[in-house]
Structures are given as C-alpha cells and as structure tokens.
Amino acid sequence: MFSFLRKSTSSQRTIEAIYGMIVTQARQPVFYAGYGVPDTVSGRFDMVLLHLWMVLRLLRSVPGGEGASQALFDRFCGDMDDNLREMGVGDLTVPKRMRKFGEAFYGRSAAYDAAVEAGEAQLAIALDRNVFNESNAAGAERLAAYVAQTLTGLAGIAPAAFAAGEWKFPAPDAPDSKVTA
User: Fold this and answer.
1) Residue 104, C-beta contacts closer than 8 angstroms, at least 6 positions apart
2) 5 Cβ contact partners less than 8 Å away, ≥ 6 residues apart
3) From first to last of its 181 residues, what are the pLDDT tens digits of the chain?
4) What whole-number distance in Å separates Cα of residue 106 and Cα of residue 71?
5) What whole-number distance in Å separates Cα of residue 113 and Cα of residue 20?
6) Three-class SS string for 50-91?
7) d(Cα 104, Cα 146) in Å, to the nearest integer?
8) DSSP string, 40-51
9) CA-wise closest residue to 147 among 49, 72, 71
10) Which residues pair with 56 in a beta bridge?
11) Helix or strand or coil: residue 161?
C-alpha cells in the first residue's frame, strides 16, 4: 500500500548520496592547493558547479535519467538556499541570489558543454575564465584534463549503476586514477 513512499525514499537517498559525492569531491584540498582553484566561497561554488555539471551531463544520457537529473538539481538549489540562510542572507535577498546561482549554473553549463565538444584546449579556456578568472592557465589545463578523464570514466559506467550512484569520482591528485563503479 505504501510502496510509493519506499520508492521515493530510495530515490531521495540516491540523490542525497550522489549530491554528497559531488560536494565531497568539490572540496578535495588538491583542487585548491595543487590546481590553484581559489579557496574562496566563489571558488568552492565553482567546483560544486563543475562536478554537478559533469554528473548532470551524464545523467541526461541515461535512460530515465531526466527525473534524477531534476531531483539532483533541486537538491543543489536547496543546499544553496540553506547555505545562504546560514550565512545570514535575508529572506528578501535569497530569491535574488538563487536567481544568480541559476544563471551561473546555466551559463557555465552551456560554456562547458560547448567547450567539451570543441576539445580539451577549449575546455581549459572556459575553466580559466569561469573558475580562475583568467588568472591560471596552467591550473585550468590541469583541471581540464581532470574533467576530460572524469567524463570519460563516468561515461563508461553502466547506466543503471550510474543512475543509482554506485560509482566514485577519480582521485584528482592521482594522474592515472579512474572513476570506479
């Protein structure tokens, strides 16, 4: 009788697990100490966006992945809303900030999608512009290599395992590290 609740709870747990993996990966110290990503609120936000974009890009290609994709994006929005409120942003300002977050996400997603299609050099340029404020071409090239490797690894995971969150990001500090299922 209550099977719809179990399915919803299971789906919510999966979304929470995937979102947790995204945030954990985005917070890896090597991105800030080794790649030169600014260790600021903006730099950390950009790393969450980058990892979210990679996962959503792959979810769009998984049969039935659109629902999970939307749920994951909604979870991201809820997290950003919660963070704004924890930082003391007022109720009247939160919607404006959320709109800016959405614009940032969609703008970067479009830039990264186009750059991936154009090649790793273009991805490095897009990352340098968006993550490094055009101040760290070498870090952007290293990050572009990591993104290309991660996208390739994620694409190799069985669709059901990917949608279920049964995989792990590669270690960003290990050049030959792979996505694991």
Assistant:
1) 45, 49
2) none
3) 334 334 557 788 999 999 999 999 999 999 999 999 999 989 999 999 999 999 999 888 877 788 888 999 999 988 888 777 777 777 777 778 878 888 989 999 999 999 999 999 999 999 999 999 999 999 999 999 999 999 999 999 888 888 788 899 999 987 667 778 7
4) 16
5) 23
6) HHHHHHHHHHCCCCCHHHHHHHHHHHHHHHHHHHHHHCCCCC
7) 21
8) SHHHHHHHHHHH
9) 49
10) none
11) helix
Q: Which two tokens stand for residue 96?
A: 């404006």
Angle at which helices 41-59 and 137-155 pack, to 10 degrees? Answer: 30
Distance in angstroms between the alpha carbons of the first and the last residue of the chain: 33
Cβ atoms of 62 and 162 within 8 Å: the answer is yes
Instruction: Specify whether the CB–CB gap between 84 and 94 falls below 8 A.
Output: yes
| CA gap 105, 156 in Å, rounded | 25
3-state secondary structure at position 166? coil
pTM higher than 0.85 for the full model? yes
Contacting residues for 76 by C-beta, under 8 A, at least 6 apart = 19, 48, 52, 105
Compute the distance between CA of residue 145 and CA of residue 151 in angstroms, rounded to an integer: 10
The answer to whether the beta carbons of residues 105 and 52 sit under 8 Å apart is yes
Element (H, E) at 29: helix 29-33
Q: Are 104 and 121 in contact (CB under 8 A)?
A: no
